[in-house]
Predict the structure.
Amino acid sequence: MCRIATIICVIFSVMTTGLASDKMAPERRPFRSCLGVSCHFAQGMPLSAMDWLADIGATWVRDECPWSSVEPRRGEYRVPDRARQWIDEAARRGLKIILHLGYSNEAYENPWDPDAYARYAAFLADALKDKVQAYHCVNEPHNFGFMQYYGGQWNGAGDSPWIEKYAELVRKAAAAVHQVAPDIPVMPDEDVYVNHYRFLDAGLGPYVYALSIHPYTHSSIPPEVTQWAHPTPMDDPYQVADEDGSFVSVLRRLRQYAQQKTGRQFELWATEWGYPVPDWVDEETAAGYLVRMYVVSFASSVRVVCWHNLQDWGDGPFGLVDNEGNKRLTYFAYKQMAQTLGPLRLLRQVRGQHNPTRGVHAYLFGGGEQRVLALWNVDNQPQVELAVEPK
């Protein structure tokens, strides 16, 4: 019997193959393929900050290239110098890029004109086709002007014309990008799960096969649990989570609904997620939650997870690094996670699959003869007991 104390998250090498069978391999890609970070190079974050990305082992960077900077006058397109600089540098370093296509453009009578937005998206996709691997449309549209322009409620309930308008914008942008870069995903983006259901009902067209989610808990709630436990009136008529409120059930239900509506299998990308310190949790807890959210997401086949943010910048104390350049515990947790699990593949979940919001969770990773176990107790109990059969 192996007994481990102080369980926020522990990752250790396993010297036995008796712990779990390797017959099932739910994720054949290496763990490092999901390691993203949200950044603000477009807003002036120094390019030297990419040294931090290299140090921690990130493989994806998510940033933006605003519409109004690409098309300052109607019909006149360019890749801004700042965008070209950070995108070229990221590509030179081997980082993959998720590019946010935002926000409005006052050059148009309708600053959210879907046809004009689609032309902007197609221009960038063509100009950057060798350097950008994914796009998502307007960030959290209920928060940043889109809903306010068209009208409606933040959760899309009742008379909310912005839902149909956002679906139209995504549909047209995806179709336009498909013409010049058919293998690059274009995603709708939201941090309110139910709005993705409404976008799907409104129709996203034949070229959308991925959704960008922001699974913030907005509190000290751990990453295995969502704040949107069912039932909740704000989600009617949809059920976005099981009654246990588990994050894995949110992912499963959203995928199932997307396939039911479109007949296609959908990818999920978590392009923002994080815990500000000390606003929601202390540094030690945030560091443990970071590892847990990446492992749980990867085990549920989330394509990429982006911690928000590399540096605090203007977003509050979310950063792996604060605005004075001090590295938080989350920075070192990310780095250790990437070094330990990065080249490995998930072999199976050892514990917790039948109780996704409580108790002990354990995931076995491997590569060659190496075995590594990621282990924690969602209930934050001081000790964990795990049976290990000797080799």
In short: The chain has one domain: 2-386. The domain at 2-386 is CATH 3.20.20.80 (TIM Barrel). The chain has a mean pLDDT of 92.
